[in-house]
Amino acid sequence: MAIKRLLIANRGEIAVRIIRAAKELGIATLQVHSAADAESLAVKMADEAINIGPPMASKSYLNIASILKAAADTGADAVHPGYGFLAENADFADAVEAAGLIWVGPKGDAIRVMGDKVAARVAAESAGVPVVPGSDGRIDDPVQARSIALAIGFPVMIKAAAGGGGRGIRIAHDMEEFDRLLPQASAEAKAAFGDGGLYVEKVIERARHIEVQILGDGTNVIHLFERECSLQRRRQKVWEEAPSAALPQAMREKLCASAVALAKAVNYRGAGTLEYLYDDASSHFYFIEMNTRIQVEHPITEMITGIDLVREMLRIAGGEPLRYTQDQVHLTGHAIEARICAEDPAQGFKPGPGTITHLKVPGGPGVRFDTLLYQGYTVPPFYDSLLGKLIVWDETRAMALTRMARALAELEVGGLPTTKPLHQALARDAGVQAGQFDTRWLEPWLEQNAHMLGEESKAL
Amino acid sequence: MSKQILSPLPGTFYSKPSPDQPAFKAVGDAVAVGDVIGLIEVMKSFNEVMADQAGTLVGFIAEDEEPVMAGQPLIELD
User: Fold this and answer.
1) What's chain B's Rg over C-alpha atoms?
2) Is A353's CB within 8 Å of B45's CB?
3) What is the pTM of this model?
4) What are A444-459's pLDDT values in tens digits?
């Protein structure tokens, strides 16, 4: 049943992106918003807007009862969750379907399996997808732990089975260190999570973050090639590219085929991304996790394939089969996305909400700016700092880098600090131009170049 | 004479270090210059609010988990 009235359970630039796709399909758009977002671009663009609560996300964008009530009150027949907030909340997905609405995403059960790191790892292994070498699940016996560490090779990471957010993680470089750290890690896990169970995993020291975009209709699955997101700060992606500059064609085919195999194994429906670590030196890739939603950096995939991912999500959720077979998906040229955030790179990325006093959006061939900004808009302090995504496409990676530099020079945002100077410095950096980076490249680079980001900020 | 401590930033005010812990300061507590009296969350980053005046906490003007503007009074001291 095709969607007629879509409720957008998100905010910011992704809400704007979803509204645009819905409008092109003739779908009415119902935008929920917190009290702090009444003047947002998404609210202005949508056909209807519904206030669902106070600024704090837990009382509005994370408030399931409030969102479902808004859907009922406005006669919505579908819910798009965007990314973040409730997008990977399986209970919300179930609640939406239980209310008789279409959930624009995979089934709650698929979210549950792929959202759980251990379950996803098991699913990957049974689909023949390589995972980071480690113990298959938890280990409680120190003798067994030692033999696993020896088998996978040092350095190894010791993690709490019940853990998360980096707590309880220890890295051992040899057996002596392993013997010393194992009891500590177990004690800390017991104290923090009430469960001393551990698992052991190989440390991939110089890894690139490479992810594969897939689309499925519950029966068939296609891939839309990969994105590389190795430039990260505090595990947050800063700059993304498609395709990866580091992946040989044969490896690309293997990687993308593995993603399709895994998504097929769980009868995946909708848009999803499988994240991998890729080790240049050994040419090995390892599945780490799946994101069961649209991602921030989806536009670079749209630029290299010409396929509108958000529109396809809406069509699939409305019951249509995939409109493309794998051999109809072609990779053309190179795309780069720079995340423009309200943070000051010269002051330790201090966030700075405020009112937009001046805005000049870049244009011209191969340039796209997905943003929540408009002149006079006041960016509220209650949500993340993403203001927009500057996306460029060109025939080659070198040309795309030149185009990114040109587009960044055109972008002017007045009234608050932005990360534009960081992206300008990255676009002209020799390491970035050579594609020589991994997930641990950006943070030391930021330390070495802090002075430069400062000067440039002042000059602007 | 009563004194107020103002929010240095716009964002969400928290009177507790985490939801399951007691408040940084309770009514009747002594507050010294430099004491942390709360947190302001700005775009997912948490900033400690330090007292720039000393006194006894008389009451909260801003409520826990509520939005505040920069310059808005948070607590009252005596």
Assistant:
1) 11
2) no
3) 0.92
4) 999 999 887 865 544 4
